[in-house]
Amino acid sequence: LEDGYAAEEDLKSSVTMEIGSMIDAIEKAVNNAQDLGAHADDKLGLGIIGGIGQFSANASADKDGVAQAESHYGVVTLDKGGKITSSIIDASQSSVTFSAEGIITSDLSGADFKTKVELGDAYDMKKASSIGKEWYEQAKAFSDYIKGKTVADVKGIALDDSSKPTSDDLKSSVTVSIGEFLTAIDKAGAAAK
Q1: How do the domains of the chain map onto residue ranges?
Q2: What is the mean pLDDT of residues 76-93?
Q3: 3 state SS of 22
Q4: Rounded Cα–Cα distance for residues 150 and 82 (Å)
Q5: How far apart are CA 146 and CA 186, in angstroms?
Q6: DSSP state, residue 49
């Protein structure tokens, strides 16, 4: 690589965009790989939902604005019968500040935006959790819960008005809003190949 771009002639002839961050993402995926129950002949799918976070705010003459990007990620593996053999759920909330003129005021040098799973206990939700579980623990519990179910089963999980699960067996281990989990898993299932 040269400044994040392909240096090899054979790759440069077909890829002219920056690829350093893609390589970093692949390395991170390999380093974090775990055996969660998938089999070699399973289909694999990824679903991503993105939007503007609830903490976004306009700038004024007196105060910088905040732009928050919020994303949810769902990965599933499906067996030949369409049952989920493994899954991963994660999310990110990344914010930058900007002036009334639209200029980014956040220091982005060396910025390391982490997902909620990467933050682990540092996400610091446990004390607000009625079951004493951190976000990543609840995401893992959700993944464990949907193992063996179809994507249609997952889409049918009953939620309350806050998108939290209503069934006792799920809400005993997951009390966060999971509407985005369901949508991400649905997208991942539809994309599975």
Answers
A1: 1-33, 38-191
A2: 98
A3: helix
A4: 6
A5: 12
A6: E
Report the predicted TM-score, pTM, of the whole model to 2 decimal places. 0.87
Residue 183, SS3 per DSSP: helix
Please list the residues that pair with 87 across neighbouring strands: 76
CB atoms within 10 A of CB 148: 12
Could you tell me which of 69, 62, 55 has the C-alpha nearest to residue 100? 62
State the Cα–Cα distance between residues 130 and 143, nearest whole angstrom: 20
pLDDT at position 189 is 98
44 within 8 A of 190, measured Cβ to Cβ? no
Asked if 139 and 74 touch (Cβ cutoff 8 Å), the reply is: no
pLDDT at residue 110 greater than cutoff 80: no
pLDDT, tens digit, for every residue of 154-182? 999 999 999 999 999 999 999 999 999 99
- Cα–Cα distance measured from residue 183 to residue 37, given in angstroms and rounded to the nearest whole number: 22
- What is the pLDDT, as a whole number, of residue 53? 81
CB 121 within 8 A of CB 134: yes
